[in-house]
Amino acid sequence: MIIKAKNNFQFILFGATGDLASLKLFPAIFDLFIQKRLPENFQIIGYGRTKLNNEEFRKKFKESIKRDYQKHDQELEKIIDKHVFYFAGQYDDQNSFRELKQFCQEIAQNDKYIQIAYLSVPPTVFGPIIKNLGENFRSSKHELRIVIEKPFGVSEDSARKLFNELSDQFDEEQIFLLDHFLGKTPIQTILDLRIQNSIINNLINGRMIDNVKISALEKQGVEDRVGYFDNVGILKDMIQSHLLQILAFITMDLPVTPNIESIHREKLNVLSAMKFTSKKNDVVFGQYENYPVKNSKTDTFCAVKLYIDRRDWYDVPIYVETGKKMPENKTEIEIVFKKMSFQADSVPSNKLIFEAKPGETAKIRLVQENSECPDYTCQDLEILDLEKSIACSSEGCLGDYASLILDVINSRKVFFLNYAEIEAAWRLTDQIFECRNTPSKYREGQKGPDSYQEFIKND
User: Of 15, 54, 101, 250, which residue has the fewest beta carbons closer than 10 angstroms?
Assistant: First the structure.
């Protein structure tokens, strides 16, 4: 079933001349358009401080689309001519927002539509945009939804400040807190598989599990994101939201009725119960050699051991690791099951593995004897990997941003975050960050610093 946008809309993109807009958001919107998922009446309104006219902005939009869509010239001309506009203004100027509101009314093609304000801007300018949007658009007859993408602050205190600003101007149902990892098909499939398959859901039980490992590794370095990354580091960039959200989907209890509110409640229960021992040997920070900022103490590798303070999970170690300049590109969740009491240490463990990169697969690893062995002490074993692709294979697959933008239009919040989840995740992240010292160096292609090997040996 092809899901389509239910409402006519105006998509107001703040930061429309930035890299995220060009690399991700414009192609995502165009993908929805060529798949005929958008309504007849919609407008894309780029808002930026750079002074451009409609034609100059449409040229930028066209250039960003041409990189990935070589055979859609007719559709590209149609969306540009009818649906793409630009408005130049300041983020902290009331007059700019009053004029923007008038501009939106002038180009509207019908009386009823929703307005989506997407903040593709640095967090430093969230405050004035939120305030000016609230004061000028809140009283509009058209429903307004505001989309903010992580990072949601840089600590629990700064996240609380951001949400105070949001709640002063908007109701909770108007706010969409976006983590693009949750738009990826393999991540969404984890929840789908648990809901639809009792065998998988019953397997993911702390009493049966020896350990869980979540890895997000990439070969590339910080590259052109160094300006942002050096002020954040990989713990706050990757673990705080992306990987803790995945962990919540894996370990949360399934609600009896899997609706949006109950799923968020169960995720919050897990995130609130996450426990870090505050022992320095339970976390490793590293930085790759030749990191482009001299004398920087920013972490580009982090591995941490966590626990869940709940009855079924309290003694199950959960390892979360992420790094740049790694030996491979890999995003994977590995669930290792406990062995039978009679099994030798050399017998491989059963595993349930979800891989999002480089492939998109779900795998169950079993072990069987290769020879007759009546007392089960033989070591002639064979590993059976039962593997199935969980990649989208049907016609009309959507990327992460396209999927989430469609969810905003349709007001579907399953794969968005709420404030309580973010606050709980920051509380844990701040505890881990307090144990941070000068990151140890590691070579390109090495999986973390030498201290990472000691971290592994500890268990």
Answer: 54
